[in-house]
């Protein structure tokens, strides 16, 4: 305690400095800063108010679940005690009945009902979308300079998260069956030769209908990827971060080869992240992670510092939506709707893009995206003539080059991502036609 | 692309390692890990199922706003287009009408209606409680070893966040008017003498009814604290992080001397964090920050990596609750209710604790906490005989020593925090009586 009378204030007083005072950001903020593709896109598109966005990763607007949400709210409100519980704080890990439902659904979807659902639910954390789980797991694993291996191309938002942490992303060659196991091993072998194997902490894989390509990892590669992670865990565990954001959005048949998580018999390698954002509502924003036991404490501790836990109200609401059967009914309807939108995009592509020499795409079996490869040498970047031309024709897209890690497989500037998530079938048709006009101009000699 | 036939898999195959594989956590996870007072309390109290908790920072259960939430939901549901917008993704910064309402309310509460509410709303970010804002701002400002000055005692959860970032917290002497400006200057002068001024990035202040003491910063000290931060911003900006979590929970009169934020005429120094968790519902979990312009981009970028934005549904709901007048009506009711609980705790303290020689407390003008100082040398720590005795008498509390930074003002182990937030008036009465029995035993020679 200070002696009462002493006036340090006066003693040390100095004039306010005249020069502007510098903000001093953390190293992390500097790594995170300014480089967001979303911001850059917004800056480029602001001057064009009537664009058809084939870029935005939003979900279909018309099918957003108004009635299921009303029914679930009514069911909660019918029991004031339940409602009050939903309006109180919850726990950091999340609402137990929701975690149990998530765990039970995962075991059923993976065809491993013999596993202990109660034990799995104890390693299930409810998060703000799958994104928060990706952030928390990465925060707990990665020091600056640590390495994550990922597909080339991969989810650009996660590349931003890795940059924010000062981590290195290395892109691994991928084909129509997803990330190529042999290429993954080659990277690991190279890391070992270079004395960097100890820096490899994780392999990031979007198992179903990935963003940006709509490609799934084939059944036989799933076990191979987990096996590789385990075999190369020589200087410490190499985790597999499995992003299952699009699992429910499968449009052809109902075969599901099971998750990478299911291939991890020991339960010590795969971090499984899922979300109801795409399959139900991003505005309610409930995701989850099922994590190896040794990461549970660290991830919960990190989450405790970020937000104490996902809003309890939303967790109760989402649990009621699953319990009532409305979730399954909604996703069935959603699959029909997106299947039609996918058809609209593929038929527009066939009509408008097929005649343009050298433009290629593969039909996605699910998800929200179509990935285009343009003729070699034709850049789709934000600062390309093609992007400018697309804007003046009335549409825009995500340039594919943002989906490549800085290291590993080279960036392909002649790629772009289209989405059929939010635009209507008619907008898809008009947007693809506009893109085709821009492409024809850009291709013209 | 790999040559098709090459089988690197076989070439490099090695047996799975037999020794258990180590998890390798990040430095941050190691800093965050294991040391949580909440976990320690849970571990200590698990074996006692019928305890009256005077520790949990939950809010009053019976007054949780069931009807206001139902009305707001009904208003949203009456307009399916509005409902669909709420169920879609929002922006990272938050729902504009909610941000405008928050900014307008801040200007009104601070008595500075002449400020530009639209401009302020552009620097207003909606977060998962005020806690997420504290985390994001700290993440953007603090590198390991950087310094935050805070009151002694201060909010223990924020001390955990600083530990997670590897930052240093230094406790500054505080009295019944809050953090002592002269003591703050002494610490800054000492940091300068030690060549550490450049590491001081922020001063953390809970302006109203702080956790754990229930003390507010007096009116004349408010301007002084902001002035000190500006004058000492010699080697870069020293921000004031103002935590206004309990502002609405004021029980005596309605005078409000205004925020630290209002003292920052230039708008470049104070980061103002607020929340509807205490004043409305922690289950809906909406908080906010009003931040200096040069921190807006970095904080949004960090938030983009964590969660893309606070759940849009909750933001629309909260906006409707404010718009309808239900928020103001609810907080008026809540103040009456907590005033009665405070009276219950003070009268129980008067009856049971006053007779115990050397136990002291000050009447909190608001908030949820009563801070007790025990006779010198009587420890209230988790491993103290007093804590054991309290458990066997049927109650527990937060040991005050967890509320002190590792540096600066020494920890006072003879302190503890009681809450009148969640227990009923009857439980408060019984809990305090139980604590008094434990204290009498612990004081007995």
What does this 3D model show about the protein?
The structure is a homodimer of 445-residue chains. Chain A has 445 residues and is α/β, with parallel strands linked by helices. Chain A is 44% helix and 14% strand. Chain A has 17 helices and 15 strands. Chain A is globular, with a radius of gyration of 24 Å. The first copy, chain A, starts with 7 loop residues before the first helix and ends with a helix. The model of chain A is unreliable at 1-15 (pLDDT under 50). At the A-B interface, helix 1, helix 2, helix 4, helix 5 and helix 8 of A face helix 1, helix 2, helix 4, helix 5 and helix 8 of B.
Number of helices of chain A: 17
Report low-confidence residues of chain A grouped into runs of 5 or more: 1-15
Strand content of chain A: 5-15%
The tally of beta strands of chain A, per DSSP, is 15
Q: How far from one another are the termini of chain A? A: 80 Å
Shape of chain A: globular
Structural class of chain A: alpha/beta
Average pLDDT reading of chain A: 93
What's the helical proportion of residues of chain A? 40-55%
Biggest interface goes to: A-B, 104 and 104 residues
Largest sheet of chain A: 9 strands, mixed
Oligomer: homodimer
Based on CA atoms alone, the radius of gyration of chain A comes out at: 24 Å
